[in-house]
Automatic annotation (TrEMBL):
It comes from Planobispora takensis. InterPro entries: Isoprenoid_synthase_dom_sf, Polyprenyl_synt, Polyprenyl_synt_CS. One of its GO terms (biological process) is isoprenoid biosynthetic process. PROSITE patterns: POLYPRENYL_SYNTHASE_1 (PS00723), POLYPRENYL_SYNTHASE_2 (PS00444). This is Heptaprenyl diphosphate synthase subunit II. The keyword Metal-binding applies. Pfam families: polyprenyl_synt.
Amino acid sequence: MPVHATRPQHPEELLAGPALSEGLRRVERRLNRLSTSSRLPLINRAAGRITAAGGKRLRPALTLATALALGGRIDRRTVTAAACVELIHAGSLVHDDLMDNAAERRGVRTVNAELGGGGALVVGDFMVARAWLAALSSTSRTVAEALAATLVELAEGQFQETADLFDAGRTPADALESVRRKTASLFRTSCVVAHPDGRAMAEYGERYGMLFQVLDDLLDLASTAERLGKPVGNDLRQGVYSFPLLTAVGRDCEDLRPFLGRRLTEEEITVVLARLRNSSVVDDTIEYCRGLAADAVAALPVVDHPEAAAVLYGLPIATVDHARALLAG
Ligand code: IPE
Ligand code: IPE
Ligand code: MG
Ligand code: MG
């Protein structure tokens, strides 16, 4: 297993190698064409604005890195599969923002803020369905099936989270199961669809996806609005009891239990966040995610391609380190 003594701090720096950046440029062109391919200009404007607004492109990068790792090259089908994965992700964010009633995403106004709930519903549908159609016509039946199965899981994960809102009986295991479906499933599939042998990377993708969402949940509790570029405490405000929160309540923050099961005032949210930041939840969650990063890398097949190896071995722990740098205090 290659060891990388010097590794960039920022996850996105890892994606800057020549093959991956060229591949990501091709994905960008494909993604732009797909998200603006409706007969209706208003749909193109809304979908195109969200995909053009950026985002880290982590999922398509995983597809490209997996293709390089397992096949040594990035072909047309890989580019389409990567664009489909990103378009499904972006469509699911349009739906997520509708469910969360969020006003801003990727630095621009959300589709729900711009066009209302009905508009966001159908624009998100368009993006997801368009991705699936492109996969069906330009990749393979296996890839299209994997994407459709992931959409089912994603919907189930989001539904579970919604069904558990303000449920004081939600357990850390319930929260993790929702994370596995709503987020880790698409990370896993981003790897699987890259190559006929992509299944070999399924465990890696899933573990990386788990740590990615758990860190996002932690930052919502323990970062600052300035560092994140969005308000903190959103999950608590909306009644989403995340894995880090439920773990803390089950350990040294038993005194926070009376704050569960009901809507909180802004003052109460401030109290809960301050209490969590002074608890072991931050270190415990970072440790848990370090474990997942190690498990992800341990699940990798042997990767000979140097650029792919640097990305796949480096990304999980770079993501943990980057999140740590965003924590308050
Ligand atoms: C946001 O995903 C949703 C989560 C799974 C936390 P990303 O953080 O990858 O969003 P973009 O693509 O960079 O905008
Ligand atoms: C991400 O969940 C949504 C999906 C995985 C579909 P979050 O609700 O935690 O993501 P943010 O915080 O809005 O980006
Ligand atoms: Mg959200
Ligand atoms: Mg959500």
